[in-house]
Amino acid sequence: MQFNFIFYMFSNYFFLQYYFNVDKFVGTAVWDGLRAGVEEDCARRYRDRKWQLHKHFEKVGGRENPEEALKHPHHSQTKEAWSDLVRGVFLDPKFIEKSEKNKQNRSQQKYPSTGGSKAYSQSRYEEVIITVIIFQMLLEIFQMLLEIFLFFHRFKQRESPTF
């Protein structure tokens, strides 16, 4: 399956070169970041796509009935590509072992993540920033209320203001 990812990644490079003028960035300091971003995006899209195809595989038969699953390819796959994917990936003992191990690990989580694809550190950073902003706003409100109180309190001691 590594071949498919590499093919997918290079097809995206050609797409970028065709629609955007990325050749001017090759060999510059920007190119490394641009290339890393494209590779990361390709890896994420490939992983998401494989997950969607595996979900379809489980829905139409799964490992319990792989022959039935082979009869019902995903709408985006040809029968030949679907057969290669099912036999080469989804029925591979390494894939099955890894899948079962991950399923077991997920079932042992006491508090499942609800942050989506955002890293915990990023979520925590945003919480802290929001807390600091709210604290600063409350401090400003408190200072305004204190000034108002002192303004009227000073007039009470002397005489009431005339407007």
Task: Supply the key terms.
163 residues, mainly alpha, 2 domains, 6 helices
Descriptive account of the structure:
The chain is mainly alpha-helical and 163 residues long. It is built from six helices and no strands. The longest helix has 38 residues, at 120-157. The mean pLDDT is 83.
| Structural class assignment | mainly alpha
Major β-sheet profile: none
Order of helices and strands: HHHHHH
Radius of gyration: 29 Å
Could you tell me the strand content as a percent range? under 5%
Question: Helix tally?
Answer: 6
Q: Let me know the number of strands.
A: 0
Mean pLDDT: 83
Q: What percent of residues adopt helix (DSSP H or I)?
A: over 70%
Shape: elongated
Flag low-confidence runs.
Answer: none
Concise overview:
This protein is about 75% helix and about 0% strand. It has 6 helices and no strands. It has helices at about 1-20, 30-60, 65-70, 80-90, 95-105, 120-155.
Topology record:
Layout (H helix, E strand, L loop, with lengths): L1 H18 L9 H32 L5 H6 L7 H12 L2 H15 L12 H38 L6
